[in-house]
Amino acid sequence: MTELSKLQDELTGRARAAADLAALEAVRVEALGKSGSVSELLKSLGKMSPDERRERGPRINGLRDAVADAVAARRGELEAAELDARLASERVDLSLPAPPQRRGRVHPTMQTLDEMIAIFADMGFSLAEGPDIEDDFHNFTALNFPPKHPAREMHDTFWLAADAAGERKLLRTHTSPVQVRVMRGGQDKLPAWIANGQAPPIRVIVPGRVYRSDSDATHTPMFHQLEGLVIDRAIHMGHLKWTLDAFTRRFFETEAVVTRFRPHHFPFTEPSAEMDVQCDRSGGSVKIGQGADWLEILGGGMVHPKVLANCGLDPDEWQGFAFGLGVDRLGMLKYGMPDLRDMFSADVRWLDHYGFSAFQAPNPATGLS
Ligand code: DAH
To answer: For atom 2 of ligand 1, which residue has the closest CA?
Structure first.
């Protein structure tokens, strides 16, 4: 047996016998590494005479291939064995309890809003939206707030810095400016997403965020309103009362609700009223439909003729009613949250407790909540 075949037997034998990947790597380095025994033989080819090289070259190359093949084959075996061992030891125990998964909840404000929308949609109202950043015209002037009138201050408006043209925009203080946008229709240049301009008859609700510089247990700088607007030829106060009475009964899911209209003043309605719901506030929680207390839940009235005219509608031909409901406040009443500020503190524990399942969309036929 020649020197070379002896070396080949020794190296391939050690490769085949390697107990693990580390031992195998040691054999590979010893033979094929930079100064390994086979590498040295390959280097020696350079110093040989052409005849000698012709004779020994193929045999040394053959040795290198045989050792490399043996190392690769053993590596495959060892890796497969390692995988088998892992598959055997890392078994998944399907009987173990799954780690708890935090599931999102629907915020009470959004739940309340969805319930309100479901009720009004069932009555035939459609949805309209407007921008949160408004101008003085839509938020105040077109709604018949006189210039410099204290009613403007009453709203604690957040004003934005003046733009290049010197105009100061504002964060809308109520959803009522969307009434104006709906009635003025094509007369205003609107972003494409505000597809709310329409000719009468009009029957829309407008849900949205509103902003006032105010903060205590029943006021937050941002809250939600739902505006309603109905314009037609013979709409009167009776329609307003029926609509809001019917809404309140369906929202609180009881026929026992008692409502009361009180005269009030809004610049954009005449006559104007506020509506209260009878409730019992003794004993810490609020019970609707009983007791001696009254809670104000909305403002409303007949749209002022000047507002109709400001929006390009002839007050001798068209008339209608409008109302504005506080969404968060209604949610607090129905679901018993004591402090409005908690609604927007983004505390997941609070949301877990007061939130709603995303799998039960409010539906007037199958149940609101
Ligand atoms: N915009 C009023 C507010 O924020 C609420 C309101 C009152 C809306 C009367 C109306 C309305 O549409 O007719 O206080």
So the answer is: 324
Q: Is the CB of 266 under 6 A from ligand 1?
A: yes
Our CA angle for 257, 260, 263, nearest 5°, is 160
Distance 356 CA to ligand 1 centre (A): 28
Q: Is 172 in the pocket of ligand 1 (CB under 6 A)?
A: no
State both tokens at 311. 């929006």
The residue assigned the tokens 């598959």 is: 87
What is the rounded CA–CA span in Å between residue 18 and residue 172? 78
288 Cβ inside 6 Å of ligand 1? no
Distance from the alpha carbon of residue 273 to the mean position of ligand 1, in angstroms:
10
Model confidence at 252, pLDDT cuts 50, 70, 90, reads: very high
Q: How far apart (Å, rounded) are the C-alpha atoms in residues 113 and 233?
A: 29
Closest to 368 (Cα-Cα) out of 197, 254, 241, 207: 254
Instruction: Evaluate if residue 186 carries a pLDDT over 70.
Output: no
Q: Distance (Å, rounded) from C-alpha 172 to C-alpha 359?
A: 33
C-alpha–C-alpha distance, residues 306 and 174, integer Å: 19
Instruction: Name beta bridge partners: 269.
Output: 266, 303
Q: Which two tokens stand for residue 125?
A: 């109202």
Compute the distance from residue 187 Cα to the ligand 1 centre, in Å. 23
Q: Which atom of ligand 1 is nearest to the CA of 299?
A: 7
Q: What is the pTM of this model?
A: 0.72
Residues 21 and 78 sit within 8 Å (Cβ to Cβ): yes
